[in-house]
Amino acid sequence: MPRVSRRGAAAVALALLPAPALAHSFPLDAPASYLFVLGTSVAWSDPAILLMLVPLAIGCGLWGRSGLLRILPYLLAGGLGGALIVLPPGPGFTRECVAAGLVLAVLVALLPPPPGHYMRIGAVAVGALVMLQSLEGHGTADLPWAILAGLVAAPLAILAAGTALVLLVSWALPYGWVRIGWRVAASWTAAVAAMYGAFLLR
Q: What pLDDT score does 141 carry?
């Protein structure tokens, strides 16, 4: 296993340090196209959300060509449940997102091919937490449709792109070591989530 220098590890750690926990600020009077892009930026710019979506995408890809379709209803159901929960502005769900990403990454790394039960449960949890984290301090009734569309579209796009990458590489290189490599990638995601979680618990 390659050694990571102290300086490199410190750089990764500093990059993952959480920002102050403030509710997302959305300019509600902006054009719809701008609001949509603004909504998509939430998932792309939040490491806690990405740490859940990356192992879920790897798990879907290792599950096979229908992996994403199998978990999609559960992901959407979880997202709908999270969107219907109205909470006051607070510290958000960063810790919960990181913990869910850590558990899912460990399962994907240790239990290939992914059994359907934990992938479905994981999809429900990820869907709910993504929406709770994205809507931090806002109710769905308070936001324009363009922002809500962006909040939904970005996680789906990230998940679909990650799953497609796993499938494409696995198809181009149909070797056992490739699947092992994806499991290693999931384990690295778990390591990053553990590092991030350690900073959150300081």
A: 72
54 vs 40: CA distance, rounded Å: 16
Triad 197, 151, 51: Cα angle to 5°: 25
Predicted TM-score of the model (pTM): 0.83
Q: What is the pLDDT of residue 192?
A: 96
- Using alpha carbons, list the distances in angstroms from residue 92 to 20, 112, 125, 167: 10, 32, 15, 33
Asked whether 196 and 47 are in contact (CB, 8 A), the reply is yes
CA distance 42 to 151: 7
Using a 10 angstrom Cβ sphere, with 0-12 exposed, 13-18 middle and 19 or more buried, the burial of residue 28 is exposed
User: Residue 149 corresponds to which amino acid?
Assistant: A
